[in-house]
Amino acid sequence: MNHLAHALLAGDDDGLRLGGMLGDFVHGTLEASALPARVIDGIRLHRAIDVYTDDHPEVRAARELFEPPYRRYAGILLDMWFDHCLARDFARWSAQPLDAFSRELRGLLWREDALLPPTLRRFRAYMEAHDLPAGYADPAEIGRALQGIAQRLSRASPLADALPLLIGLQAPLQRHFEAFFPQLREHARAWRDGVGGAGPAS
Question: What is the pLDDT along the chain (202 residues), one digit of tens a residue?
């Protein structure tokens, strides 16, 4: 899942939410981290969400919709498009309006600037310029994001040209998202309630 999903699935806890955003920018073990404990929990929740997502049968079935050369990048494409599905119907998943949620998330990143690595500070600037994560409701913004990812990859990829494919697949992808996301939300809620949150940081 991508940034909007991770932030939403962290619940109302700012520490977990910040950890959810840091999850893509902090790697390796966390035992020696100087981050606050609740932020570390948020990174662990981010990782638990990613593991659950990768193993879910609906997500595996969605990956099968992509033919080569896109199959190799199906994980990236699904992460981005599922955030689009979430943003487009955000009122269904959250009582808070998407624009307000998006502004509050960026505000959290500014308040906790001292904890952010340079890579996340750069991404925050991109978020500001493109009104993210609210902007993910616009398919064109997904296309721009995929072009940016393609430019950062070390090898040539078809990601920059993937938006028409995603739009063409939106009906089956929506069905997989609808079947998958409620289960992911329950998994994250259980983790936050202590099922997955009591172990050592790693």
Answer: 899 999 999 999 999 999 999 999 998 888 768 899 999 999 999 999 999 999 999 999 999 999 999 999 999 999 999 999 999 999 999 999 999 999 999 999 999 999 999 999 999 999 999 999 999 999 999 999 999 999 998 889 999 999 999 999 999 999 999 999 999 999 999 999 984 444 433 3
Establish if 29 belongs to a structural domain: no
Instruction: Answer yes or no: are the C-beta atoms of 132 and 102 closer than 8 Å.
Output: yes
Is 61 contained in some domain?
yes
- The answer to the question of residue 198 being in a domain is no
The CA distances from residue 115 to 36, 37, 39, in Å, are 9, 12, 10
In a domain, 199, yes or no: no
pTM for the full model?
A: 0.92
Give me the number of domains the chain comprises: 1
DSSP 29-89: --TT--S-HHHHHHHHHHHHHHHHHHH-HHHHHHHTTPPTTTGGGHHHHHHHHHHHHHHHT
List the domain range (segments joined by +) for residue 78: 3-23+37-192
